[in-house]
Amino acid sequence: MSLAVIKFSSEDCGICHKMSFYDQKVAKELDLDFIDVKMQDTATYRKYRKILLSQYPNKEEMGWPTYLVCDSPEGDFTIIGEVKGGHPKGEFRQRLKDVINDGDN
Description:
105 residues; alpha+beta; Glutaredoxin; 4 helices; 4 strands
Protein backbone atom coordinates (compact mmCIF):
# COMPACT_ATOMS: atom_id res chain seq x y z
CA MET A 1 0.00 0.00 0.00
CA SER A 2 1.46 3.35 -1.02
CA LEU A 3 -0.43 5.98 0.91
CA ALA A 4 -0.37 9.63 -0.01
CA VAL A 5 -1.77 12.76 1.54
CA ILE A 6 -3.30 15.03 -1.06
CA LYS A 7 -3.69 18.60 0.11
CA PHE A 8 -6.38 20.59 -1.68
CA SER A 9 -5.89 24.25 -0.94
CA SER A 10 -6.15 27.73 -2.35
CA GLU A 11 -3.39 30.29 -2.74
CA ASP A 12 -5.49 32.94 -1.04
CA CYS A 13 -6.26 30.82 2.03
CA GLY A 14 -4.35 31.98 5.12
CA ILE A 15 -4.87 28.75 7.07
CA CYS A 16 -3.67 26.71 4.07
CA HIS A 17 -0.52 28.82 3.99
CA LYS A 18 0.04 28.43 7.73
CA MET A 19 -0.36 24.64 7.51
CA SER A 20 2.20 24.51 4.68
CA PHE A 21 4.97 25.25 7.19
CA TYR A 22 4.67 21.71 8.59
CA ASP A 23 2.03 19.60 6.82
CA GLN A 24 4.40 18.06 4.28
CA LYS A 25 7.02 17.41 6.97
CA VAL A 26 4.46 15.64 9.19
CA ALA A 27 3.29 13.50 6.26
CA LYS A 28 6.89 12.45 5.53
CA GLU A 29 7.46 11.62 9.22
CA LEU A 30 4.50 9.24 8.97
CA ASP A 31 5.99 7.73 5.80
CA LEU A 32 3.29 9.18 3.55
CA ASP A 33 3.77 10.72 0.13
CA PHE A 34 2.59 14.33 -0.06
CA ILE A 35 0.86 15.89 -3.04
CA ASP A 36 0.12 19.61 -2.92
CA VAL A 37 -2.83 20.61 -5.11
CA LYS A 38 -3.62 24.30 -5.30
CA MET A 39 -6.96 25.00 -6.94
CA GLN A 40 -5.27 27.70 -9.05
CA ASP A 41 -2.81 25.16 -10.51
CA THR A 42 -5.16 23.83 -13.18
CA ALA A 43 -2.86 21.10 -14.51
CA THR A 44 -2.27 19.55 -11.08
CA TYR A 45 -5.86 20.09 -10.02
CA ARG A 46 -7.16 18.39 -13.17
CA LYS A 47 -4.94 15.39 -12.44
CA TYR A 48 -6.37 14.85 -8.94
CA ARG A 49 -9.85 16.32 -9.39
CA LYS A 50 -11.53 12.90 -9.66
CA ILE A 51 -10.25 12.04 -6.16
CA LEU A 52 -11.62 15.26 -4.67
CA LEU A 53 -14.95 14.92 -6.49
CA SER A 54 -15.39 11.32 -5.35
CA GLN A 55 -15.37 12.65 -1.77
CA TYR A 56 -17.02 16.02 -2.45
CA PRO A 57 -19.08 15.83 -5.66
CA ASN A 58 -20.16 19.49 -5.36
CA LYS A 59 -17.12 20.62 -3.37
CA GLU A 60 -19.59 21.43 -0.59
CA GLU A 61 -18.47 20.79 2.97
CA MET A 62 -14.82 20.49 2.06
CA GLY A 63 -12.55 22.38 4.41
CA TRP A 64 -9.67 24.73 3.68
CA PRO A 65 -7.39 22.99 3.39
CA THR A 66 -8.74 19.48 2.84
CA TYR A 67 -6.25 16.63 3.18
CA LEU A 68 -7.39 13.37 1.63
CA VAL A 69 -5.39 10.30 2.64
CA CYS A 70 -5.46 8.11 -0.39
CA ASP A 71 -4.07 4.78 -1.51
CA SER A 72 -2.72 4.66 -5.09
CA PRO A 73 -3.60 8.26 -6.05
CA GLU A 74 -2.05 7.76 -9.49
CA GLY A 75 -4.25 4.77 -10.32
CA ASP A 76 -7.36 3.08 -8.97
CA PHE A 77 -7.37 5.15 -5.83
CA THR A 78 -9.07 4.43 -2.54
CA ILE A 79 -9.73 7.24 -0.09
CA ILE A 80 -8.77 6.04 3.40
CA GLY A 81 -9.88 9.17 5.23
CA GLU A 82 -9.44 12.89 5.53
CA VAL A 83 -8.39 15.78 7.71
CA LYS A 84 -10.19 19.07 7.13
CA GLY A 85 -9.19 22.57 8.13
CA GLY A 86 -6.28 23.99 10.06
CA HIS A 87 -4.76 22.29 13.11
CA PRO A 88 -1.68 22.77 15.27
CA LYS A 89 1.20 20.53 14.21
CA GLY A 90 0.79 17.91 16.95
CA GLU A 91 -2.95 17.64 16.44
CA PHE A 92 -2.51 17.41 12.67
CA ARG A 93 -0.02 14.55 13.16
CA GLN A 94 -2.45 12.74 15.48
CA ARG A 95 -5.37 13.19 13.09
CA LEU A 96 -3.32 11.75 10.21
CA LYS A 97 -2.26 8.83 12.43
CA ASP A 98 -5.88 8.18 13.37
CA VAL A 99 -6.87 8.08 9.70
CA ILE A 100 -4.08 5.63 8.89
CA ASN A 101 -4.89 3.42 11.87
CA ASP A 102 -8.60 3.40 11.03
CA GLY A 103 -7.69 2.44 7.48
CA ASP A 104 -5.83 -0.64 8.73
CA ASN A 105 -8.98 -2.09 10.29
